[in-house]
Amino acid sequence: MTRVEHLDHAFGIGERRPRLSWRLPPEAARQLAYQIRTTNGHSLDTRARDARTTDDHFVDGQTADGPDPAGRDTAGMNSDGPDTAGRDTASPGSDVVDTGWVADAGHILVDWPFAPLKSAEHVSWQVRVRTELGDSDWSGPCSLETGLLEPGDWTASWIRPAETDIPPAGQRPAHDLRGIVTCPETVTRARLYATAHGLYEVFLNGQRVGDQELTPGFTQYTVRLQVQTYDVTALLRPGDNEIVVRLSDGWFRGQVGLLRSADQWGGRTAFLAQLHADGTIIGGTDSTWTTLPSPIRTADLIEGQTSDLGPLPTFEAPTSSPQPTSDRATRTPRPSAEQPTRTPQPAAEAPTHAAQPAAGVSTHAPQPPTGVPTRAPQPSAGMPVEVATEIGFGGLVGVVAPPVRRVQELSPVAVTFPAAGRQVVDLGQNINGWVRLTGLAGVTGQITLTHGESLGPDGDVDTGHLAPDMPFLPQPLSAGQVDRVTPAGADTFEPRHTTHGFRYVRVEGGPAQVTGIVVHTDLRRTGWFTCSDERVNRLHEAALWSFRGNACDIPTDCPTRERAGWTGDWQVFSPTAAFLYDVAGFSTKWLRDLAADQWDTGVVANMSPCPPAEGRHGPLGGWNGSAGWGDAAVIVPWSLYQAYGDERILAEQWPSMVAWLDHVERAAAGGHHPARKPDPHLWDTGFHWGEWLIPGEQIGDMREYQARDKADVATAYFFRSAALMARIAGVLGRTGEAAGYTALAAAVRAAWQAEFIGADGTIRPDTQHNLVRALAFGLLPEHLTQAAADRLAELIRAAGTHLATGFLSTADLLPVLADHGHADVAYELLLQDSEPSWMVMLDRGATTVWEWWDGVDAAGRPRDSLNHYSKGAVAGFLHRYTAGIRVGAPGYRDFRIEPVPGGGITSASAGHDSPYGRICSSWRLADGRLDLEVEVPPGTSAEVVLPSSVQVVGPGTHRFEHAY
Ligand code: BGC
């Protein structure tokens, strides 16, 4: 498997010097050398050539201590080695360029060896490696392609629909924009580059282009806007080609964030596209484009979408087109006369009523019905578009993460009819996405779809708990999530310009067949866990689904109420997410927004991308910069480095981390709590969310909550970030700064100890969360550590073996117990089935993890979001302790397998697809024995820790038996 940066498919990237990764042959212990070649006539990077002459890093066949150049044939691997740098004599074709053998053990995120890439450059590359097993074959050809890298690459203009009057947010229509591009006879490679202020979908000659959803995605639009690159070679034809774009508000102009503010990045939507054929620009958005109303009458990510599929005025057909546009472009398959049934069809892998995927599109889910809308026979030229000359090309960026896609379809598990004319569909799983309706042909009026996470006592969908509680706003905010469609003869409907967090859908206005469409960033799954206890497996599944429900181009808090990239949430969950999915690109993208959102004072915004209304100058400006949330600036890059070995993310985020720590240092030194004597290293002022959502805690009056002393939490995070900064500086070779942050961390730790450890050695405040943090962050002197862990266990016992942790420390609760001899208590908490506990969530029907411990009370009443991943970080305990897979050297170059059985679990197994390959740990307890099987990927080693033995093993599968 090869990769470019953090992408499996590096298409439209913005990186001129992308790093390359590959895996070693099975069982290979170590790479001795590698060789990379391209077939594009690339020259080697001159910097690399210079380096070669000075430090002999690049090896022309051999060096004194380098590998044997001449095809050492071991283990039957390919051995036709090249003998000169720059040209591979064994390869055909004169434009093949290769690095020669490079004596280097690194094969993850290896620096680009060739000259920096240009815009729209397509590179085909191959790699082979030399290991102790011999020389491998060349890998299959891998490719990468850059997008448009320079503002000057654009000749197209930004255009926008002519909007005479703009309705209030939530009620604004999508617009269709149409242009004609003339294409030459033969085209071997065609690319469409597109982006928008708003959300867009593109149709080329009536076919939907690509399978990405919610493009261009969510970034801090003032600074960064993603451009998508599409391969449209198969869709173009000689002569005139029609491009139709459907453009709605999206995050750019629609409602976003805690306050549901609209128009956050501008009051108008806009679109930009450029079409290239074989390296030549053949067209793009300009003043010749026209605009017409679309069938989407309203579209808002939070509020929902209203569509009327009745005939619309058509665009005039392009003059030289072989067929009239209106014949080619149909919106949906015509009614299939399929009668809706009351009982849903059984779940099918790929429902037959869906259109077949177009060639080259994702096979995760069938391609949705494609095509531009059916329009009335009288052609209309449409209104001329406006050219938006004031929008520039400066902030356009390529992709660093996989796109959002329709990744799965779910068939309902139940359909009920709680009242006349109301159908309630249960997907059996809380998801992010939307539904597809089929069987609409007989429907005469409008169908209304209300999406929710729970049912009321009457069996109907209850959305009351999803409406934000913002008493200070002039009007109450709605729960949103309502779609409406007038089928007007169409058989099928899918919205695509909105998303919802839901398990249940109320259908009013006519029965319809409903299929759930799961929509999220199309991340590669990398982590699995299963054990002998089904309840624990269900909990793991719920945590997994909570992440899936909250990975919609950015990591969100919930897919319903705010859908915001809350920093604290990702700070807590990102290490667990990085085990389950490859989130390297996803998180890198988000960190760039975090840095872009940072104030010049270093304050980290509560959420990224941060809508201006939530930022410094908004009404809640003072709520930004909280401990545990702002610390995401340091902790998230560190988690990424641990999981993927990506040092560059540390370097890239370094200025942001420094700015945050400077702010914290100033804030700590600059004020003090009135009840405390000043200490410049105690952070006891400012706004903090604190531990947040501790069971039973009443927040009620925010002003009173704000005034509560949270110095224990804030100072602990001050220490945590300063200590991490010392390590990060060390990794980056910033020796002076490493020493500075080490000293700062020591001073903060001393201040915390002076304030929060009593003369008798007891820790104050005597709360579970304070003790968890003290133990997890290393705030305690050695001699008090065990006593603190014992006290934590005692507090838990005193509460009837119940946890009392909230948002920030729950992830560390079970690990610190297990680390200090209380694995029994950890497992009892994991399996506790009275409130507050994870099992109560499952017992009360959760399929995702709740925001509050009592997200659904004993009477079945829901409270706030039922899909928040922070408490789902308990899955990390299952991976790292129950199954025992723990990262050692960054990227799992070495790792530890140290299972901690407990809770009556008799077997457990976990797998993680690390950058080096698949790691597995699988154990079984039987007949007084623990049987453990461990899989170690090539190029890595594992330290296997069992109660009375420690062994280091290399690549391959290993079995261990231990008395237990
Ligand atoms: C969000 C959280 C977030 C919090 C700040 C909530 O409204 O849903 O997940 O971290 O505010 O405490």
Automatic annotation (TrEMBL):
Enzyme Commission code: 3.2.1.40
GO molecular function terms attached to this record: alpha-L-rhamnosidase activity
Keyword Secreted: no
Bias (Basic and acidic residues): 44-59
Disordered: region residues: 40-97, 305-382
UniProt biased composition (Polar residues): 317-327
Alpha-L-rhamnosidase concanavalin-like domain location: 421-515
Keyword list, A-Z: Hydrolase
Pfam families to which the protein is assigned, alphabetical: Bac_rhamnosid, Bac_rhamnosid6H, Bac_rhamnosid_C, Bac_rhamnosid_N, Ig_Rha78A_N
Domain Bacterial alpha-L-rhamnosidase N-terminal: 186-309
Domain Alpha-L-rhamnosidase six-hairpin glycosidase: 524-881
Biased composition range(s): Low complexity: 344-359
Residue ranges annotated for the Alpha-L-rhamnosidase C-terminal domain, each copy included: 884-959
Catalytic activity as recorded in UniProt: Hydrolysis of terminal non-reducing alpha-L-rhamnose residues in alpha-L-rhamnosides
Protein name as it appears in the record: alpha-L-rhamnosidase
